């Protein structure tokens, strides 16, 4: 009996000792939101872990980033959950709203929305579309690809007598906000009947969740049209259209056009960087350029959790440019990066020590 008691005590001591010397399970940085930015956030998470393994100079975080691509609106809503460290949104909040909610907001990467189509024999560059024509397609006024209004701006293309299958996002999306703002500027009827928001009452079409769902729906439907982040569209192999900008020029979506648009934006830290890149009126501007913004709590997260998130975002801004470019995004201009870091120091707990 005494031997059994000694064995039991020894076992307890062994378990306690193992617990004391075993490292605590690393907790991931948790984020949610934009499907537009999901590919680059995933790439940055992998790069961040590799950087740590190579002896990077930030706090170690073996668990990386646990990011849920639930759409911009969903990300902002989930930021209220205590376990979420940041939201990513392509629909920035006005400064009055971020102030009311106690949130910091700043851009992290640039990109663009491309009109994506499933048409045989149409390459990525030849097809041209105006905002007015796209609005009429989504309103149901233009139902076939050989409609005179489409043919008039594509005189060299043999457009098929094929029904247009409209696809739109069914979840709250910054991509939808960018898309519907563009249509509202181009079409008074769209502006009055539908308007611009992350969620709208679509006049027609099939809904799809997320950028991946959008692309898959267009791939399944011959004659379909949709809208999604440029890099994901390019990797899908589907055709995308050139779009007419405010100056009347047809601009091909791509990093050069997105960067040219971003250079013309006034990024105001005093307004939490709120900006509408679709408003840029410059000859080479692409009217469906977008930025992904990160939103973080100023007060409701510990300094340690905030710093872990900022270390990851510092990696993204300082070392993630190649990953962004490879996926079809555009890194922030250097002066904007500097302004974002100054904003962190002034706005976020622990930011002054960066």
Please give a structural write-up.
The chain has about 350 residues and is of the alpha/beta class. The protein folds into two domains: about 160 residues, 3-Layer(aba) Sandwich (D-Maltodextrin-Binding Protein, domain 2), CATH 3.40.190; about 150 residues, Periplasmic binding protein-like II (D-Maltodextrin-Binding Protein, domain 2). About 40% of the residues lie in helices and about 15% in strands. It has 14 helices and twelve strands. Strand 10 and strand 11 form a beta hairpin. The N terminus is likely disordered.
CATH topology of the largest domain: D-Maltodextrin-Binding Protein, domain 2
Helix and strand content put the structural class at: alpha/beta
Total DSSP E strands: 12
Question: Radius of gyration in whole Å, from Cα?
Answer: 24 Å
For the residues shown, what is the average pLDDT? 89
Provide the CATH top-level class of the largest domain: Alpha Beta
Major sheet: size, sense and barrel closure?
A: 9 strands, mixed
Instruction: Give the SSE string.
Output: HEHEHEHEEHHEHHEHEHEEEHEHHH
Principal-axis shape equals elongated
Descriptive tags:
single chain; 354 residues; alpha/beta; D-Maltodextrin-Binding Protein, domain 2; 2 domains; nine-stranded mixed beta sheet; three-stranded mixed beta sheet; 14 helices; disordered N terminus
């Amino acid at each position: 009996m005494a031997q059994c008691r000694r064995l039991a005590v020894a076992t307890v001591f062994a378990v306690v000792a193992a617990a004391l010397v075993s490292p605590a399970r690393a907790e991931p940085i948790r984020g949610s939101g934009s499907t537009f930015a999901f590919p680059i956030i995933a790439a940055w998470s992998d790069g961040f872990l590799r950087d740590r393994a190579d002896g990077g100079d930030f706090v170690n975080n073996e668990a990386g980033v646990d990011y849920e691509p639930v759409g911009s609106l969903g990300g902002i809503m989930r930021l209220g959950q205590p376990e979420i460290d940041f939201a990513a949104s392509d629909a920035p909040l006005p400064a009055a709203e971020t102030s009311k909610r106690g949130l910091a907001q700043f851009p992290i990467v640039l990109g663009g929305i491309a009109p994506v189509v499933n048409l045989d024999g149409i390459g990525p560059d030849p097809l041209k579309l105006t905002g007015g024509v796209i609005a009429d397609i989504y309103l149901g006024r233009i139902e076939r690809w050989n409609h005179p209004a489409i043919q008039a701006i594509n005189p060299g293309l043999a457009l098929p007598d094929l029904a247009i299958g409209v696809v739109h996002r069914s979840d709250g999306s910054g991509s939808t906000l960018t898309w519907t703002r563009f249509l509202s500027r181009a079409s008074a009827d769209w502006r009055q009947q539908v308007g611009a928001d992350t969620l709208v009452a679509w006049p027609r079409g099939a809904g799809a969740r997320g950028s991946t769902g959008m692309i898959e729906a267009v791939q399944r439907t011959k004659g379909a049209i949709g809208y999604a982040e440029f890099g994901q569209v390019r990797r899908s192999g589907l055709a995308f259209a050139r779009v007419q900008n405010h100056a009347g020029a047809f601009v091909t979506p791509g990093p050069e056009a997105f960067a040219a648009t971003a250079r013309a934006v006034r990024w105001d830290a005093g307004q939490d960087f709120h900006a509408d890149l679709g408003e840029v009126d410059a000859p080479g501007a692409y009217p469906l350029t977008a930025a992904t913004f990160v939103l973080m709590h100023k007060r409701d997260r510990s300094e340690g959790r905030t710093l872990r998130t900022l270390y990851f975002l510092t990696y993204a801004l300082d070392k993630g440019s190649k990953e962004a470019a490879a996926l079809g995004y555009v890194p922030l201009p250097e002066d904007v990066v500097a302004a974002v870091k100054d904003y962190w120091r002034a706005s976020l707990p622990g930011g002054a020590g960066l």
